[in-house]
Amino acid sequence: MASTIEDDIQKSAVRRRVEEEKFMVENLREVSRQEYLEKREQKKIDELKHDIEDEQFLFERLDKLSEAEKREHVRKQKIVELVSKKKCEEADDYRIPENYDNLEGGRVNQKKRFSVASQRYREEHEIHPEQAWEENQVEKAKLNFGSKDRKQTEYQFVFGDQIEFIKANGIESSNDANVDVEKLQTSRNSKLKEDRKALPIYPYKDALLQAVHDYQVIIIVGETGSGKTTQIPQYLHEAGYTRSGGMIGCTQPRRVAAMRVAARVSNEMGSKLGHEVGYSIRFEDCTCEKTILKYMTDGMLLREFLTEPDLSSYSVIMIDEAHERTLSTDVLFGLIKDVARARPHFKLLISSATLDAEKFSDYFDCAPIFKIPGRRFPVEIHHIKEPISDYLDAAVTTALQIHVTQPQGDGDILIFLTGQEEIETAENIIKNRIKALGTKIAELITCPIYANLPTELQAKIFEPAPEGARKVVLATNIAETSLTIDGIKHVIDTGFCKIKCYNPRTGTESLLVTPISKGSANQRAGRSGRTGPGKCFRLYTEHSYTNDLEDNTIPEIQRTNLANVVLLLKSLGIINLLNFDFMDPPPAEALLKALELLFALGALDKDGKLTKVGERMSEFPLDPMLSKMIVASDKYKCSAEIIGIAAMLSVGNSIFYRPKDDRQVQADNAWMNFHIGNVGDHIALLKVYNSWKETKFSTQWCYENYIQVRSMKKARDIREQLQGRLERVGIDSTSNVNDLEAIKKSIISGFFPHSARLLKNGSYRTVKHPQTCHIHPSSGLSQVPPRWVVYHELVLTTKEYMRQVTELKQEWLVDVAPHYYQLKDVEDSSSKKMPCRIGLASSK
């Protein structure tokens, strides 16, 4: 009994200690917070004093400040005076320490007791995380401000090198649509129904539906923002074109546009995305059996011809942004033209944002042209006086000029750049310059938009800027026609875009920065005149616009690799490609090169007909070489590994992430861990995917290894689809992860035309169609180059670079492709002495 009472007493004492410690910790936090706030208050006062001293020193006399800055200067002085006065008035008397006991209640005053107990937990120089951050910012400010030798005006970061423009003939306002300006300003807060009625296309709804009823094929010309992409499919649905069970399909040249437009239309129709309204892009299908309005990339509709050559599931097809003339769009023209002839009740709408509709009309048997007004307000166009050397810096400077000189509420800024790298660079420059200016100018919010940007960040460009702030959108040419961004009043046109070019002689593909066409320039200018009078600042001279720019962009079909398209057309039973009804025929040399490659891969026989291997290859929505690699994996019993590699290659070069701070060393070490043993880039990608899979697709693992989780999720989705395709073509899912030779032979089976041997000078020479090239610095084999390699692609940047490289044995080329290589092609020069560190990989 006594022991039980003693145990209870001990337990009670333990509970009291725990409760007391808990109470003490909670109060410790409160004390720490209060002390931090007091220190922070003093630091802010010190900062104000430093600001006052710096401003007095920098400007010497206050008449150099603006009125607003004078008021701000006086305000700071008053704050310092009030605080100083308050501290002087505070009593500094000595107080007798009070005891902890409340004599009346007979209880201990825990708060008073705690104030002494907490002393043991206090550090002599406590540093709060927020305080550390603020001190870091103060130190940075000291480095950038207050130097006696520094001669700068208030907006030196903005006006250091101003860009001078000459006003040119602008774009006049259109009288076709009488839209109330006040209604436009309040349309954002109005209902979706009112938004739809406010669009320029709405007054022409009945006339458009009548034209669709009367004619099978119509060419629709409408400026970007007229509402044709979002409204026409809805009008047709409301008119009953989906009652018989047929869908209304609308193609887009870009994935981002297809997804964004589908989301907008589903919102307008009050349905969940993926139900009545859905989208379909490569490796992502967001539709169901209920879908009646389907937005998709033109490439996806092209692949639907494989399973449904007459497109019987569709009652209407609208090919949007036809003026962009992508490769898939041009092929679609020839195929869907035959569908319209075979199905009298099928409706075909060709939508274009430019005025070259006569060419489309002639191609589609003199189809009628229906014009919809779009631009409502005039646009002033300004050209630079003299050519510039750095258009990126000039674009940033111009944007800051606009932001500082134009009143707030005067509209947002849109800058056209060539790609993700330029957009990220411009974003960093703008943020750094805005940060250097501090609070002296209003807030400027940067909103980038490009294909690889996460969806939640892409949506930011459509959000209005907060009160007192301005938004600057950094976009590629996707913002020319595919996306409509409200609130843009100022457009900065760099005059360049990035297009894909293909050299059939060397087999080299490259993304080249080239001047835009006049058509693109006019499209860019028009983005500023949607909601009010706008301005376009062109970073090229008026002489360049008149004399140097082409009227229209060269169609993609005349400047790209045609192997994928030829395989698709062959699988559709089109034998004579030279007689195919192209709007603009591709170069004969490019067609022949594609036929040669497909024959070498075994997809075509000597008569140009599709083989069994070719039929299997056509089922995969991949480049023919990747498809052949997967088909060959059946022979080497490693299909599970090969579809993983194919999925990772399909994502592109966005797997690894290298931060721009002191974590670069950690990121490099993480990258090297996957390349241990010089296994090659293909195997390294496989190791990345398998390691991620072992962690049950952990996001945290991606962060720890500096890997883009978004890219990995996309690769996982692609792999799942490829897994389904394996079953469809009768390939068993087999794994042979430890047999690297089998995996490499499967890779070579698809990419044997992409082989190269090492030269004595450290460069490489392709075996067929000899060409000098180099291993890309991002490759794991760039420091220990093997004698023989196979590569995924050859790209032209500063040099001819091989990307995604793997070592091979030269005899494998003859084993895998005896019809393509002979022994003399792969004779080894290993007997000749190689320079130091060259050819080391093969010896490891």
From TrEMBL:
GO terms for molecular function: ATP binding; helicase activity; hydrolase activity; RNA binding; RNA helicase activity. It is found in: Nucleus. Residues 209-373 form the Helicase ATP-binding domain. InterPro entries: DEAD-box_helicase_OB_fold (IPR011709), DEAD/DEAH_box_helicase_dom (IPR011545), DNA/RNA_helicase_DEAH_CS (IPR002464), HA2_WH (IPR048333), Helicase-assoc_dom (IPR007502), Helicase_ATP-bd (IPR014001), Helicase_C-like (IPR001650), P-loop_NTPase (IPR027417). GO terms for biological process: mRNA processing; RNA splicing. SUPFAM superfamilies: P-loop containing nucleoside triphosphate hydrolases. This is RNA helicase.
